[in-house]
Amino acid sequence: MGIAVSDPDGRVASPVAVLPAQEVLAHASTFRRVLEDWEPDLLVCGLPRTLAGDEGPQAARIKEQALKIGETCGLPLEFVDERLSSSEAKRILREQGLSERSMRGKVDMVAASLFLQSWLDARHT
After folding, report:
1. Given a cut of 90, is residue 40 above it in pLDDT?
2. Staple partner for 119: which of 46, 50, 63, 80, CB 3.0–4.6 Å?
3. Minimal CA–CA distance to 61: which of 25, 114, 106?
4. Closest to 63 in 3D by CA, of 53, 73, 48
């Protein structure tokens, strides 16, 4: 899972880390450390939608998992459309000169920062 945070004013998203989904779901020490370091007020979760904008079976699974994570963390949760964020993240990393191999482990956190940024932008318009 890609993890991104915003600045205190909620204007700029930055990539932070990628953690295995199981560690986040289990509220493992690696995920707790991220929460302690960044002290979020809210979790924003990317929701995979189809190109037509519909929620499919994967979106239902993600919602269920995200709700469990929010409950475990004691934080409110919002969802944002993450459509095409991974392909956009790959494009950005390629433009920075990264090979497919060197992109591994970076795509998810860059994608998380992209959809977090779109969520932040929507709140400030």
Report:
1. yes
2. 80
3. 25
4. 48
